[in-house]
């Protein structure tokens, strides 16, 4: 029988504190950290809550639906278990809120099995070294900074950039078996955009969405990453699926943590964020894993940088946890600010032999194109090679950097050779001669001249 506690003595934001009288050793009514509780009153208020702190007989709980309308004489009943999320094949093609309840008007799933959320990351002995590529058909990713299975990588950007459009494209085009999407603090238009894109592209039946909208309780924002990752882990381990987790935006998650920390009167750290920001972020990102003898979980998460400040606590801590980043600014993925630390595990091994040489040559020449553009802006005299670089830079931005460009990897590599041939002679590329002989399109320059004419 569940024991009701009514000694609520403090309500701050979405946090309540109650006093629980101990019944002695073995008292089963005493809660554990992260246990669920039901908060209700005779005035019609009812919500789930989660234990977030225990200080002797004082228990602090986060109320999922917020504390608006909660009277001091409400009762709290501890359920004796952590929060769980529905997991079965029936959740594919469904949309849930930040508490794991369906919000798409579909049938209830109350009879489906559930799994606990927020568990530990995988045992390192059960992990496999990353060795498989996730193709996205985005050239700036596939060619220059491959997304590798089991990788955890953020998209660093600022407000106003099309990071949601990029994330939706990757979710649609990625060669993953299951996509688990987590929206944190989304406005309704953004939520509707993601759902419409997934439905129109025909990938919604392999997608699960957990959505916390900006109008929803902040507390639920903290649950979304745990809900998405718990479901993703089960699909990977039990069904051997290659799962891609998409999260936007982890800065909103960190801001929700800061709000709760302030309500708990904890000593703040850098810029008001809690001192355990790093460990809280790492606890989620470390769920990315390639499981031995089973599937994999790959995490791609948007992290906005307030004021485009890379030293802000959220992107700064994220950079120490993750394996690189995609840097999105001015509407394009910056090839110099982006990095995938695991790309060497797949480039030239599971991709074409010329991949590594093409990647390095294209970036080297684009760097030269930027230098030539600076010389041109300062009215310096340009050489013939500078003019070739300027032409190459224009083609590179148009054909590869635009986030709307969609090309399979092999087609993108062929286009790289085509672009090089239109701008440079073979001996100017400084590449392995065997690769130049095999892949350099000899007629490209003539075709380019005829098209211009």
Quick rundown:
The chain has helices at 139-142, 163-173, 188-200, 218-239, 250-263, 277-285, 313-321, 355-377, 384-401, 409-423, 433-439, 444-452; strands spanning 4-5, 8-12, 15-19, 35-40, 46-55, 58-63, 75-82, 84-86, 94-97, 114-116, 133-134, 147-148, 152-157, 178-186, 207-213, 242-248, 289-290, 296-304, 324-329, 332-333, 339-340.
Detail the poorly predicted runs. Answer: none
Biggest sheet features: 10 strands, mixed
Strand content: 15-25%
Average pLDDT, all residues: 90
Q: How many DSSP-defined strands?
A: 21
Helix content: 25-40%
- The termini sit apart by 86 Å
Rg from alpha-carbon coordinates: 26 Å
User: If helices are DSSP runs of H or I spanning 4 or more residues, what is the number of helices?
Assistant: 12
Shape: elongated
Structural class: alpha/beta
Description:
The N and C termini lie far apart (86 Å). It is built from twelve helices and 21 strands. Helix 6 packs across helix 7 (313-321) and helix 10 packs across helix 12. Strands 9, 13, 14, 15, 16, 17, 18, 19, 20 and 21 form a ten-stranded mixed β-sheet that branches. Strands 1-7-4-5-6-3-2 form a seven-stranded antiparallel β-sheet, with no helix packed on it. The protein has 453 residues and is an alpha/beta fold. The mean pLDDT is 90. The protein has helices spanning 139-142, 163-173, 188-200, 218-239, 250-263, 277-285, 313-321, 355-377, 384-401, 409-423, 433-439, 444-452; strands spanning 4-5, 8-12, 15-19, 35-40, 46-55, 58-63, 75-82, 84-86, 94-97, 114-116, 133-134, 147-148, 152-157, 178-186, 207-213, 242-248, 289-290, 296-304, 324-329, 332-333, 339-340. A hairpin with a 2-residue loop joins strand 19 (324-329) and strand 20. The protein is elongated and about 85 Å long.
């Amino acid at each position: 029988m569940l024991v009701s506690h009514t000694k609520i003595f403090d309500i701050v934001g979405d946090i309540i504190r109650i006093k629980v009288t101990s019944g002695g050793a073995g008292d089963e009514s005493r809660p554990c950290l992260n246990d669920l509780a039901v908060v209700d009153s005779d005035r019609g208020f009812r919500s789930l809550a989660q234990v977030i702190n225990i200080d002797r007989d004082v228990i602090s709980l986060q109320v999922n639906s917020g504390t608006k309308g909660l009277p001091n004489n409400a009762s709290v009943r501890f359920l004796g278990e952590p929060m769980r999320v529905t997991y079965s094949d029936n959740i594919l093609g469904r949309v849930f809120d930040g508490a794991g309840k369906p919000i798409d008007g579909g049938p209830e799933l109350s009879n489906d099995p559930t799994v606990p959320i927020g568990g530990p990351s995988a045992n390192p002995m059960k992990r496999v070294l990353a060795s498989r590529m996730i193709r996205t058909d985005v050239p700036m990713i596939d060619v220059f900074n491959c997304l590798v299975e089991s990788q955890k990588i953020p998209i660093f950007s600022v407000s106003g950039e099309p990071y949601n459009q990029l994330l939706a494209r990757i979710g649609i085009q990625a060669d993953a078996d299951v996509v688990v999407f987590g929206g944190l603090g989304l406005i309704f238009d953004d939520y509707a955009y993601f759902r419409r894109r997934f439905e129109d592209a025909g990938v919604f039946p392999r997608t699960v969405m957990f959505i916390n909208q900006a109008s929803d309780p902040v507390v639920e924002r903290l649950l979304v990453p745990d809900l998405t990752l718990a479901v993703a882990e089960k699909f990977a381990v039990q069904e051997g699926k290659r799962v891609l987790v998409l999260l936007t935006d982890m800065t909103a998650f960190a801001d929700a943590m800061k709000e709760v920390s302030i309500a708990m009167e904890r000593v703040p750290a850098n810029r008001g964020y809690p001192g355990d920001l790093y460990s809280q972020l790492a606890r989620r990102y470390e769920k990315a894993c390639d499981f031995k003898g089973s599937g994999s979980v790959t995490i791609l998460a948007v992290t906005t940088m307030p004021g485009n400040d890379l030293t802000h606590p959220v992107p700064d801590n994220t950079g120490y946890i993750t394996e690189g980043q995609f840097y999105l600014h001015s509407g394009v993925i910056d090839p110099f600010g982006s990095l995938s630390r695991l790309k060497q595990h797949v480039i030239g091994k599971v991709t074409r032999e010329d991949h590594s040489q093409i990647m390095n040559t294209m970036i080297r020449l684009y760097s030269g194109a930027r230098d030539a553009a600076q010389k041109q802006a300062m009215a310096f005299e340009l050489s013939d090679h500078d003019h070739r670089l300027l032409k190459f830079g224009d083609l590179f931005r148009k054909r590869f950097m635009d986030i709307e460009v969609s090309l399979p990897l092999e087609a993108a590599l062929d286009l790289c050779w085509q672009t090089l041939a239109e701008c440079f002679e073979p001996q100017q590329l400084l590449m392995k001669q065997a690769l130049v002989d095999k892949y350099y399109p000899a007629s490209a320059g003539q075709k380019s001249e005829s098209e211009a004419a």
